Records
---
Amino acid sequence: MKSIKILGKCLFVSLSMLALSCSSSDDGGSGGGGTPTSTMIKAKVNGTQYQTFSVQGVSAGIATTSGTGESRLIMISGSNDMSGNTAFAIDLIGINATGDYTINPDSDSVMSFEMGGIAYDTSGCGNATGTIKITMLNEEGIKGTFSFTGKDDENCSNSKAVTEGSFSGKFM
């Protein structure tokens, strides 16, 4: 009887490991997979990697959605350090489907990187433009990739190149 219990436990552990190894993983916002389990934004800014701050695996990022149709607002944000000196923000207005979107001063949506109290964004200066690719969007979350040239609205000659960006957001 004892041998059967041990054999049963071994079989259970083996099958559990097999099931876990075959499951899909959250790919950190690069597209594919299921609904995100947390919120994260990461990208290179002028070649330096930044990522949403987390403590013991819990992200400091926030994603929200409200409204419908042309009035839908999706906000994804996250501080990259404990002091809040650097942060990303993506505010999307009227985006309701997966696809590629151009974000610039003429669009309602904005992408931004803040550093030391200066926001480098796509809202107010010429050539402050970028693209965002929404790869997953439902009632529970969003995933995608992005890149943009953000400019300081107070000094349009001051800019930051944001590249290799990805995000995932679990709506609150």
---
Amino acid sequence: MKDKDHNKYDISYRQMITRMPKLYKFMSKYKWLILGLAFFDVISNLLITLPPLIIQYCVDEVIPLKDFSSMNIFFFVITMMYLVYSGLFLGHIYIRWYLQYNIRKDIREKLFNALLLKSPVFYAKRVSGEITSRMNNDVGSVSYLASDAFFDFFNAFLKVAFSLTMLVYLSWKITLAIVILILLQYFFVTIIMNFFKKYRKRTSEKWGRLLGYLQEVLSNIKIVMAFGNENYEASRHLRKSREYIKDSI
């Protein structure tokens, strides 16, 4: 039962697309801001892709003709592209920060309100530290998926699309070699991530138990001091911390 409950909170990048309908409930409130940010991404990737093509055209066509006026125009255009890209990049960072923290706030409010309606049996079967850990880590993970991870995925897709288009234009052989290398890298990274997945799950459980222990000791600190158990609790904390660190490494 415990593993089943934990799997509900075990969110990975691979599940982002399949869980998008659930994430959309938190993203829909900011849909126009998200669409604007997606438009920023398209323009930014276009601005960062065009300069190499313009430079290649200048080297192949303009410089041999010694057309300095055209070179100055192209230089001005490239400079303006990078300036616009810098402005879009700064705006992109601010909007993503705004989205992530507001989505996180919305998720925490809904989760806290849902926890208030749970029965005492629910809390009797769970350690308070585990609930706190999930409110902190899992809410952060979900808000990250609904904001930063979503745009990282979208931005990566745009970069791949624009880059492949430019590479195919320059040389289809180089493009084929790069695609093969990317697929091989994805294959090996997937194997490694699946191997470490079970350790990440165990580490999360250890962290929840450690938080539960800390809350238990701090809430009963007067009793601990009354019986002179400070050294005993310190050794327990050291042992639990070492277990957590050992599983984390």
---
Amino acid sequence: MTQTTPTRTRPEIDDMVPGLKLQAGDNHATLEALRDLLLEELDTQTAYEELVAGNLVALELDVNRLRRMVDRLVVEAMFAVAHDKLTARLGLDYDSSGAPVSPEGGDVFAQIDAVTDRIAVMKRRVWQAEPDIVAMIETVLLEEGLDPVLIQALARSRNAVIIDPYEMRLVASEQRRRRLMEDYRRLQAARPEEVEDEEDFDDYDFGV
């Protein structure tokens, strides 16, 4: 269930600023810390700057979330390809009914189950490595003698209809964030310069 935490703004405009929307898998503390650091760096000085900054923070969180989604989709697809590759190593034949038969004899289904179990172990290692799941799957694939680049290429090719829309959303969010940041920098540049207090000539020493 999605939860929303208000951003750190003036109370009178808080309802107009995008909140911190939490989704399944989000780390509340991490996202709050990221949001607070971003707001501190943006250093808002007006109500309008706070509104723009709130949108920037929301976009940044969306970009990070979409990246994580894409990574997970790709990794899950890579597991499916890896399963196929490891199963192919068994060199199975198929009888007239289409049932798999091991050329070396033995329980073919036990051999397939063994491959599935190996994939399950690989998955546990990878998911436990969050957020470094991409690096970890490369490690476990290499340990199995599989080429991570080829596996990823096949995974993306087979699952393009699922992965591509998320990557397109990611690109669109990154473009929106960049444009909004450019607008925000222009706002900052247009801030009125601070005028120094006029010098108190009564206290000035004219050397007389």
